[in-house]
Known about the structure:
By secondary structure, the protein is of the alpha+beta class. The chain has one domain (2-74). 23% of the residues lie in helices and 24% in strands. The chain is built from one helix and three strands. The chain has a three-stranded antiparallel sheet with strand order 1-2-3, with helices on one face. Strand 2 and strand 3 form a beta hairpin. It is globular. The model has no long low-confidence stretch (mean pLDDT 94).
Amino acid sequence: MKQHMKIVDARITPKEPGFFGAMPQVFVTLEDRNEVLLFNYYPDEISFIASEFIGLTVEEGKRLKFTKDVAYLRS
């Protein structure tokens, strides 16, 4: 089950230019060496660095986004 696999690497795509450009995406590589899309996000609200995801599970990585979203909304 991929939700419980540990993340061994991560990469974050840049925001595409322009108002309608695609938002950054977080891709993670799991213990089984498969890369999966974890989520995309609005970079004017929250930010990430790849090293934040290393050692987390997929579930924990998604929870990290939720936690940052909540903190942003409360600020």
